């Protein structure tokens, strides 16, 4: 085989490989965008709108969020922490009737602190914290965005009544979804906690949480696939005249 033929074959093979790579990238592009759209839901549409309809630019932004925060594993809350945050939210919503703006500000602070306690970026880095939350709680993060916007909006001639109060009330109602999602223990958090309790019982011979000691064949083991109970959401409204959240 002559040198010219060998060179021609190399050129043809290289061309085929380039075309195959281009076709593979084109085929992967829509799927990548589709997976981002499924993952981010309403956040995907907001990103596209923020980029004036440029879906590719929006997808690059969302993909970067996943790259930075996708591997984050939220830290489980201790019972005392969970109770403290629950009490704080209850106090904030009760304050709304007399001081709606202060109540919304307290809700904004609580969400930032709770997210930080779960292991998300500190609340002092609001944009980064919001980006991380959008990766893991895309369908609930808009409520946090709303209470933060209302809290830090400049007050000119606005009054704490009428539409202003309604907007603040709606922002708190919407933000509660993210608050409860962050407060709720994940399934693996509960399994890890139960495994730790059983392990401690095996070491010290103390009864497990169900009152049975190690060696009892009826005592559930740490490997039992029992469902972890979750807290049922509670409905609430700020006054009798306001409709309850559905």
From TrEMBL:
Q: Does the keyword Transmembrane apply?
A: yes
| Membrane spanning stretches | 6-25
> Which UniProt keywords are given for this protein, alphabetically ordered?
Membrane, Transmembrane, Transmembrane helix
Basic and acidic residues: compositionally biased ranges: 189-222
Region Disordered, annotated ranges? 189-246
Task: Name the domain of life.
Answer: Bacteria
Its name, as the record gives it, is: Secreted protein
Annotated source species = Streptomyces lienomycini
């Amino acid at each position: 085989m002559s040198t010219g033929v060998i060179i021609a074959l190399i050129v043809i093979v290289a061309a085929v490989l380039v075309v195959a790579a281009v076709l593979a990238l084109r085929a992967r592009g829509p799927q990548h965008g589709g997976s981002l759209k499924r993952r981010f839901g309403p956040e995907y549409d907001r990103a596209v709108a923020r980029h004036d309809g440029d879906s590719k630019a929006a997808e690059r932004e969302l993909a970067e969020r996943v790259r930075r925060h996708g591997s984050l594993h939220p830290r489980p809350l201790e019972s005392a922490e969970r109770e403290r945050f629950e009490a704080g939210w209850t106090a904030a919503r009760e304050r709304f009737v007399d001081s709606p703006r202060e109540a919304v500000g307290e809700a904004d602070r609580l969400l930032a602190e709770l997210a930080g306690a779960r292991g998300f970026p500190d609340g002092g880095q609001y944009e980064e914290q919001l980006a991380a939350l959008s990766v893991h709680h895309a369908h609930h993060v808009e409520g946090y965005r709303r209470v933060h916007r209302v809290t830090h909006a400049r007050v000119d001639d606005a009054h704490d009544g009428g539409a202003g109060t309604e907007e603040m009330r709606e922002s708190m109602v919407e933000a509660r979804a993210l608050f409860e999602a962050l407060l709720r223990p994940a399934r693996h958090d509960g399994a890890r906690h139960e495994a730790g309790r059983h392990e401690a019982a095996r070491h010290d011979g103390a009864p497990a949480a169900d009152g049975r000691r190690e060696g009892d064949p009826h005592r559930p083991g740490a490997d039992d696939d029992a469902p972890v109970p979750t807290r049922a959401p509670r409905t609430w409204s700020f006054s009798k005249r306001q409709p309850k959240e559905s």
